[in-house]
Amino acid sequence: MRVDVNAPAWHGQRWAARTALAAAALAVLLPLGYGGLDGVLLLAAGLAGGAVTAAAVWWTLTRRGPARWLAAVLAAVTPTVVVVLFVVTLGWVLVLSPVLWAVAVWSGRYALRSTGTRPRRMKEHRARSVRRPFLLMNPRSGGGKVERFGLREKAERLGARVVLLDPEEHQDVTALARAAVAEGADLLGVAGGDGTQALVAAVAAEHDLPFLVVCAGTRNHFAMDLGLDRADPAACLDALTDGVELRVDLGFAADHPFVNNASFGAYAAVVQSPAYRDDKIGTTLELLPDLLTRQRGPRLTARIDATTLDGPQAVLVSNNAYRTDDPVGLGRRERLDSGLLGILGVKVDSAAEAAALLLDPDPEGLAVLSAREVIVDADRPEIEVGVDGEALILPTPVHCRIVLGALRVHVPRKRPGVPEAQPRLNWRQLRKLAATAGRA
Fold first, then answer.
1. pLDDT-flagged residues of the chain (< 70)
2. What pLDDT sits at residue 438?
3. Which position among 213, 313, 348, 356 has the lowest Cβ density within 10 Å, counted as fewest Cβ atoms?
4. Which pLDDT value is given to residue 328?
5. 122, 173, 261, 271, 413 from 409: Cα distances, Å
6. Region of 143 on the Ramachandran plot (φ > 0 left; ψ -120 to 50 alpha; else beta)
7. What pLDDT, on a 0 to 100 scale, did the predictor assign at position 13?
8. Distance CA 233, CA 207 (A)
9. Distance CA 279, CA 51 (A)
10. Which DSSP helix (H) or strand (E) runs through 280?
């Protein structure tokens, strides 16, 4: 196939690629040229400051008493000193350089938008009308969003049957969802956190019923990646009258479903503590020193296809992969229908390895992988697991898997939270595009 790269569109993208490369080069060279030898020394000071900050954070998390507080002060003071040095030495250049980086990123993404690097968005399907929707609502979730946004009243006006969970006693939401299906419900929904969402979603997937997400939880990462407006939970209910359907994957840790992630290691052990719910920061700081230095907790092993992670302090298995290469999209999932689990493994045993995580482009202590299944094992018969924030104890080994397109999620047709999918910056491809001339 021949593509006319002299066509107006290609001509504009070629010059956008050249602009991106020039702006990126200027963003780096301008501070060095303006500062001269001081600029070179400043760059070295910035790298050293980053290493010291990372090491200080490691000491803060792994020490107790006065040593922890001294490390915390060092972690706060070091970047402050580096920023002051940059401001004093570079002045106006310090403002111009980030602007040039912004131009480089915008121009680079514009240039790559028709080269096949733009992520494919999830396909929307026509949502069939429902007659007997059933919704579970947690009145305590998100600090009382159910009452504050009038979710029950709006759902009932739209014809849904609503059951409020009793905050004073534990209720089996899976059993409630199954009972609703037996009584003829043709849609299941939840206004609550990701943990409750996952349990009811599994019942919906089992019976091939549509599922409705109402983002009434504290964070609701699943709702965010579906593009729902987390600031307006009531808008989620518009899917009952004007919605579309997304086919979404569903993850499992053993037999426990998750829509967001399952965590193993340090974080999973922390959330098991009874004190965690009332004092998250204090409990975390109390437990992490023993967990990170391996004085407490299991030794994990994660097997992903032909790769084995030996002894990571933490393993995060997610329903589709999180973005890790773009600060703007960090922690978000571009899609929820790839059929692959995302796997993040972290292994850090010293301050030097903590610094490498920050400065090394490909640190040994960080594993970023994707696979259809993961097996997490340990040197003990049971391990702590955090499944969508819920604390569980599961027998080892724990088999994590993903079911492609298991879930039919109904979402509003108009979702202001759906971000425009941007191509990933590929500087090598930009160089090729910038050098293109004539016909290819």
1. 1-10, 114-120, 325-330, 417-422, 436-440
2. 44
3. 356
4. 56
5. 12, 18, 18, 29, 12
6. left
7. 82
8. 26
9. 30
10. helix 280-292
Taken in order 220, 225, 231, 235, is the CA torsion positive or negative? Answer: negative
Three-class secondary structure of residue 170 per DSSP: coil
Q: What Rg do the C-alpha atoms of the chain give, in angstroms?
A: 25
Report the 3 state secondary structure along 296-347.
CCCCEEEEECCEEEECCCEEEEEECCCCCCCCCCCCCCCCCCCCCEEEEEEC
Write down the pLDDT at residue 2: 45
Query: For residue 440, what pLDDT is reported?
Result: 43
Q: Which two tokens stand for residue 104?
A: 């480089």
| Cα–Cα–Cα angle for 387, 222, 182, rounded to 5 degrees | 75
Q: What is the pTM of this model?
A: 0.84
For residue 249, give every residue at least 6 positions away whose Cβ sits within 8 Å of its Cβ, in sequence order, or none: 319, 320, 336, 337, 338, 339, 402, 403, 404, 405, 406, 407
Nearest to 312 by CA among 358, 271, 363, 278: 363
Amino acid symbol at 269: A
Residues in the chain: 440
Q: Interhelix angle for 93-112 vs 427-435, to 10°?
A: 70
Written as six digits, the tokens of 384 are 């702590």
What is the three-class DSSP state of 256? strand
The burial of 30, by beta-carbon neighbours within 10 Å (0-12 exposed, 13-18 middle, 19 or more buried), is given as middle
The 8-class DSSP code of residue 7 comes to S
User: pLDDT for 336-366, tens place per residue?
Assistant: 999 999 999 999 999 999 998 888 878 888 9
Annotate 375-440 with DSSP letters as a single string: EEEESSSEEEEEETTEEEEEESSEEEEEEEEEEEEEEES--TT-PPP-PPP-HHHHHHHHH--S--
Which run of H or of E encompasses 23? helix 8-35
pLDDT value of position 393:
94
Helix, strand, or coil (residue 133):
strand
Q: What tokens appear for 199 in the block?
A: 């349990």
CA-to-CA separations, 211 to 28, 204, 426, in angstroms, rounded: 49, 6, 37
Cα separation, 367 vs 54, whole angstroms: 18
Count the Cβ atoms, other than its own, within 10 Å of residue 180. Answer: 23
DSSP annotation string for 37-96 = HHHHHHHHHHHHHHHHHHHHHHHHHH--THHHHHHHHHHHHHHHHHHHHHHHHHTTHHHH
3-state SS of 230-248?
A: CCCHHHHHHHHCCEEEEEE
